[in-house]
Design goal:
There is one protein chain. Strand 6, helix 5 and strand 7 form a beta-alpha-beta unit. Helix 4 runs parallel beside helix 5. The strands form 4 sheets. The chain has an 8-stranded mixed β-sheet with strand order 3-4-2-1-5-6-7-12, sandwiched between helices. The chain is an alpha/beta fold. About 40% of the residues lie in helices and about 15% in strands.
């Protein structure tokens, strides 16, 4: 298949593009390579994919490693660039992983989230409408569950109380996708990712921040006294789920009952899945795993809960298991060891 992967210089996008390339798909990667976090990491991911040298905006670069990989630097909010790309390339599938990520940053720069996550996703939906693709898969987030304390979180139940603008924009993506599935027949599948971690991970995430601080003998800030749980999900497990979903276009639920609607499906070709490890880990236990992998203890500075954070996440993956025959399962300690090994190699520490 010919697949567009947006966010291809990002954490999940890079790994997804690599997986699709490895199985023989033709991939076009797209990213604006912004400086939300250290661009060195993004450039490093691209280089590993064979995209090297100066990358000019709007120009398509050929990978030196994969004959079936090309990359374009462009912004999702640039409608003209997105429309031109779709018209020229005629994609079979689209895997839309680009977004402005981060709960806390959305409190200080809300416009970035509207531009990337709302306007950018709208531009992707419009492009899929006018240049028909057989399946649009897009990234959502566990953050949409917000105030919901009915765990494990199920995609079949409402998620209508987000507590950060980041979460609200991703919920907006799900709603817009349903509208396009209903009105224009665009098959769409949203994936609610749960705290993704692993090699080449984002520098704004806890694992990266804690590892760096511990190695530099600095304190780590532990919010809510460490009394939080997260459903940490290893990157390889996420990518396996994404690849399986790409291969299975969303279809209408023939048993959909509008009087008692299932929030994860529709009479339109629309689906939502959780991709999580289904095994919440206490933050204190996660820190201990990092300490053990580094062979060094952390100095903890306990902090109150931050605005926009939730006390716990826990994914029900029943629908993913039923439809895709797949369930993430990498233990946290193994995943943390893999990250620490990568971090030491990448930064030479």
């Amino acid at each position: 298949m010919k697949v567009l992967v947006t966010g291809a210089a990002g954490f999940i996008g890079f790994h997804t593009a690599t997986r699709l390339l490895g199985r023989g798909d033709e991939v076009v990667g797209l990213d604006n390579i912004n400086d939300y976090y250290d661009p060195k990491v993004k450039i490093g991911r691209l280089a590993l994919s064979g995209i090297k040298g100066e990358i000019a905006y709007g120009a398509i670069s050929q990978s030196e490693k994969f004959a079936n990989y090309r990359f374009i630097k462009a912004d999702l909010a640039d409608k003209a660039a997105i429309d031109a790309l779709f018209a020229a390339e005629k994609f079979d599938r689209v895997c839309h992983l680009a977004a402005q990520a981060g709960v806390r940053y959305s409190l200080v720069n809300p416009q970035a989230y509207i531009d990337a996550n709302v306007t950018g996703t709208l531009n992707i939906l419009e492009a899929c409408r006018h240049n028909p693709v057989s399946h649009l898969v897009y990234a959502s987030t566990s953050s949409v569950y917000g105030l919901n304390a009915d765990m494990p979180f199920s995609v079949t139940r409402p998620a209508d109380h987000p507590i950060s603008l980041y979460a609200a924009t991703k919920k907006c993506d799900e709603l817009m996708a349903h509208t396009y599935s209903h009105l224009f027949g665009v098959p769409t599948t949203g994936l609610r990712f749960f705290t993704v971690y692993g090699p080449w991970g984002r520098p704004d995430m806890a694992l990266f921040i804690f590892t760096k601080a511990i190695l530099e003998d600095r304190e780590i800030e532990v919010f809510n006294g460490g009394d939080m749980q997260r459903d940490f999900t290893y990157i390889d497990d996420i990518v396996e789920g994404v690849a399986r979903v790409i291969d299975r276009p969303a279809a209408p639920n023939l048993d959909f009952n509008a009087a008692k609607p299932d929030c994860a499906s529709s009479s339109a070709p629309y689906r939502i899945y959780n991709i999580g490890n289904s095994a919440p880990v206490q933050l204190s236990e996660f820190i201990e795993a990092i300490e053990d992998a580094l062979g060094k203890k952390a100095r903890r500075k306990f902090m109150p809960m931050q605005a926009g954070d939730v006390p716990a996440t826990w994914a029900s993956t029943a629908e993913l298991e039923r439809d895709m025959g797949y369930k993430p399962a990498t233990p946290v300690r193994l995943g943390v060891e893999c990250f620490v090994k990568w971090y030491r190699e990448f930064y030479g520490v």
